[in-house]
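The data layer described in this paper is built around a simple, fixed record for each protein. Such a record has a labelled line for the sequence and another for the backbone structure tokens. For reference, a complete record is included directly beneath this paragraph.
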Amino acid sequence: MTTYTQPNKETRRPVKVQSNFERYAYLFMRLSGVALLILAVGHMLIQHVLNTTANLTLEFVAQVWSSWGWKAYDMLLLVFAVSHGMNGLRQVLEDYIHNRTLMRRINIFLVVFTIVTIIWAGIAIAAFDPAAVR
């Protein structure tokens, strides 16, 4: 309840606080950006600094993905990168598209596309069989 006081007069009115999706989307972009910075820099160090580009072969991927730890690392990178990118695309589109109905349809499409992409790529990472490469 909000209270406004004037000299010798007090007014009370209820204030309805609405759910603010954009505030959470903003927070997600900042936190996922930090996570992506750590994960992507780690990925670049592992793939391009600690190993030479000549060593980036299917056998190397099979060796790395024989451990569930590396698969989980790559899945986290996948989830954060795709969801961060789609949320950024959504924010840019909302700046230029002012039709509420069209924007709602685009948001539904982006959510479905993000979920399908993460599931599809996650299954590919989880189902990868290193023994089949050898």
